[in-house]
Design goal:
Blueprint lengths: L16 H9 L6 E2 L11 H12 L12 H15 L8 E4 L4 H10 L5 E6 L4 H8 L3 E6 L10 H7 L4 E7 L11 H13 L3 E5 L24 E6 L12 E4 L2 H12 L7 H13 L1 H23 L14 E2 L10 H12 L1 E2 L1 E2 L11 E4 L4 H21 L1
Helix pairs in contact: 2-9, 3-9, 4-8, 10-12
């Protein structure tokens, strides 16, 4: 008899295509890893010192459940300063990484069978979170010609009487797409017309190289029907600190806070003190890293477009590229595994981010320039040799 009885809904749970690649890549010596979706920069010393100072001064007790008031005030100031978005401290809740935010929202809002439209390709943790909370995922595919964002018409076609939430991510993981004002306005109109709530994942808001970051909550009539996900992992290189936040209507936050009590009972005090210092003193360094990622990502796009069978769109934001490799004659899964085994270069198959990622791979420009050059030299040599041998 099996002593551990796994819940029926989790009995067939499987690792993602991304995880399988990561597991295989871990066994390869001298790997060029273009798959890691986190900044390669360490957390700045000022942030670390602020957290250490707080610990030494006795800040080792339970935090306020919604986050320290001074940190929530600084988050308000950050969004006003960078994106001209007006937010009140009472509309902010600190979370354990940005990833806890949509989970809490789905848990608070979804009744069994409610549908959630998710713009695809996407960070597919959304899919699992919706399903784990009793909802039904409705992927809304996009196309390269629209910057990898579904059009208003695409969303309209996917709406049913059970549709409750629409999820959008800009700048986007995995495509690096940045939504335009016109696109954002058209999606907002769909949400208002059909009384939908919008989850806008804006965790990469600091990395925009073409255009301007448009907070969905800044559009007319959207603040009361949008939740914005933000954080420190990408903008301030604090992935290991596990701290993010959500900006949302007070009625939703009230429920999300109560749900978070039985899950985490607040967010790590020292992480909050580090985040406070990050917002108060790190704007210039953040801009410097953004400029460095822009150099890397434009170099990478040029290298990719010079390779046989590869087409890469203009970089827009985040630190990802999503090149089309379909002209190589391989699927995205086949290509990523072939590249790993042939050239010791790790990339992520596009279908790891939904069916509409087929024929693409995700490349993360989270290596220094010399590392990127080495990786693309290997990739180009492998493709050139394969083309010559065909």
């Amino acid at each position: 008899m099996q002593p551990v009885k796994i819940a029926q809904r989790f009995q067939n749970i499987q690792p993602s295509g991304m995880l399988k690649i990561f597991q295989a890549a871990a066994a390869i010596d001298d790997l060029s890893n273009l798959g890691i979706g986190e900044p390669d920069f360490h957390t700045e010393h000022e942030i670390v010192d602020a957290a250490a100072k707080a610990a030494k001064e006795g800040m080792t007790h339970y935090p306020p459940l919604t986050g320290y008031p001074e940190l929530r005030q600084e988050i308000c100031a950050y969004w006003k300063r960078h994106h001209d978005l007006e937010v009140a401290p009472g509309e902010i809740h600190l979370t354990v990484g940005g990833i806890q935010a949509p989970h809490l929202c789905f848990q608070a809002m979804l009744d069994p069978g409610d549908e959630v439209m998710v713009a695809e390709p996407c960070f597919t943790a959304y899919f699992q979170q919706v399903e784990f909370n009793g909802g039904v995922v409705v992927p809304v595919p996009s196309r390269a010609e629209n910057g990898f964002f579904p059009t208003a018409e695409d969303f309209e076609k996917a709406i049913t009487p059970r549709t409750k939430i629409l999820v959008i991510n800009s700048p986007c993981n995995p495509t690096g797409g940045v939504i335009t004002l016109e696109q954002a306005q058209s999606i907002a109109e769909v949400a208002k017309k059909h009384d939908l709530f919008v989850i806008s994942d804006e965790i990469y808001e600091a990395f925009v190289f073409s255009g301007k970051h448009i907070p969905m909550a800044s559009l007319p009539g959207m603040k009361e029907r949008a939740m914005t996900i933000g954080g420190f992992s990408k903008s301030h290189c604090m992935t290991g600190w596990r701290i993010g936040y959500v900006m949302a209507p007070a009625a939703l936050l009230k429920v999300m806070v109560q749900l978070s009590v039985v899950q985490t009972f607040g967010v790590n005090v020292l992480s909050q003190m580090g985040a406070l210092e990050a917002l108060r003193s790190q704007d210039a360094k953040m801009r410097g890293r953004t400029e460095e990622y822009e150099k890397r990502i434009r170099y990478s796009a040029d290298r990719l477009n010079a390779m046989p069978g590869v087409r890469c769109p203009e970089p827009k934001g985040a630190f990802y590229l999503f090149p089309d490799i379909s002209e190589t004659g391989m699927t995205d899964e086949e290509f990523s595994w072939w590249l790993l085994e042939t050239a010791k270069v790790a990339t992520i198959p596009g279908t790891s981010f939904g069916k509409s990622g087929a024929g693409h791979i995700r490349i993360a420009c989270t290596l220094p320039m010399e590392g990127l050059k080495k990786a693309f030299d290997r990739m180009e040599n492998a493709l050139t040799h394969r083309t010559a041998s065909a």
